[in-house]
Amino acid sequence: MSQPLRFGVFLAPYHADDESPTLQIRRDLELADQLDALGFDELWVGEHHSASYETIASPEIFIAAAAERTRSIRLGTGVVSLPYHHPLMVADRITQLDHQTRGRVIFGVGPGQLPSDAYMLGIDASTQRRRMLESLEVLIPLLRGETVTRKTDWFEVREARVQLGPYTHPMVEMAVAAAVSPSGPRAAGINGIGMLSMAATSGEGFDMLPAHWEVCESMAAQHDQSVDRRNWRLVAPMHLAESREQAQADMEYGLLKLVRYFERLGNAALPYGRSLDAAIEQWTEHGLTLLGRAVIGTPDDAVEQIRSLQKRSQGFGTFLLLAHDCADPEKTAKSYDLFARYVIPELRAANRGRQESLDWFNANSERVVGDLRTAIGKAIEEHEAERSESGGGVAWGDTRDLLVGDD
Questions:
Q1: Is 285 exposed, middle or buried (0-12, 13-18, 19+ CB in 10 A)?
Q2: What number does CATH give the domain 6-350?
Q3: Sign for the pseudo-dihedral over CA of 273, 308, 43, 48
């Protein structure tokens, strides 16, 4: 692909339940500031209503606040669980955000992740993917400014329209969550929208990356839609430090808390759940549930994994770091800083021109420096000749062996 890879962060969030939730949300907003200042392209924010750790119930409210603190970073709903909401209400909120952010919002959608959320809402889990597709059939025309009438067994719209026209034309950018099933790729292709691969480095998710895109393209062709790899986003966890040893030591702060969270979500007693070293080995070598395999290491390790994702997928548009609290806030901030300083420029070849310039100078230094020495020597000779004629002035030593920027 000709355009450079984009980078962002996916914030579920995963916050331990032994700290102040107020301060955790404030830190999330500070993260938006930091990522914007570091030049990250996107920040995605999730919707969850139960199970303690994932504390943001309304990504739209968070995005509205983050948009006022930031300048250029795009802000995505990661994701709005469509079966939980009436589609007209969703379309209204997203259109308003499109205006408030001046086009910086990205509308991510999904069927809903936590079964406890659906249970509290009285929604049969077996209907969630069907409901998502039915909602999309109404949402997309509403976001385009069309009038829609539709009745299903869980919502009705009658001559419904969004009273605000879209800020982004023809409509706000959309993406649908995908994990290991074909549901996400099918929905992306049917509707001609982007795809958000949440389990890109899990064993099954990594293996299925080519099939996911193949299904997406196939469904798009069958429904007269078009899809673009530039609108495909892959998510994976990372924590970076100056050395692998330091990155692993940083995990003492919170990795076992995250492991125990997944245990309590019904993953039984994970065999590595009481040993930090075992948990690190599991996460980096095999993956931690659908979070996939993590990089806990250096910027070079991060570059290697992202390149493996590029090779396996045959190309995607944006890489998203999965946010977590496994290191303390200061070391987590440092990890993002290292990613921005070293990983992003390496994968974008941002320093190629600088390196080529220095390589050219090195290869041609004898000629280039020789010309410089000749010019300096001539200037010295002219000065000495003028000084000799005038019978005074300051003598000038021979400085031709000095490599200087100017004389």
A1: exposed
A2: 3.20.20.30
A3: negative
Tens digit of each residue's pLDDT (9 = 90 or more) over 293-336: 999 999 999 999 999 999 999 999 999 999 999 999 999 999 99
Interstrand relation of 42-45 and 232-240 (parallel, antiparallel or unpaired): unpaired
Q: Helix H segments across 18-111?
A: 21-38, 59-69, 87-100
Helix (H, G, I), strand (E, B) or coil at 145: coil
pLDDT above 90 (res 4) = yes
Between the two ends of the chain, the Cα-to-Cα distance in Å is: 45
Q: What is the mean pLDDT of residues 143-157?
A: 98
Is the pLDDT confidence value at 404 over 60? no
Structure tokens at 43: 């920040």
Checking DSSP bridges between strand 318-322 and strand 232-240, what pairing results, if any?
parallel
For the chain, the C-alpha Rg in angstroms (whole number) is 27
Q: Is the dihedral of CA 95, 31, 237, 8 positive or negative?
A: positive
Strands 156-160 and 174-178, by their bridges, are unpaired
Per-residue tokens: 61: 């409210």
pTM: 0.93
Q: Could you read off the pLDDT of 213-257 as tens digits, one per residue?
A: 999 999 999 999 999 999 999 999 999 999 999 999 999 999 999
Helices (H), 178-285: 183-191, 203-207, 209-222, 244-250, 255-262, 276-285
Residue pair 189/227 in contact (Cβ under 8 Å)? The answer is yes
**Segments making up each domain of the chain, as ranges:** 6-350, 351-407
- Residue 244 CB neighbours (<10 A): 16
The two structure tokens encoding residue 170: 């023809």
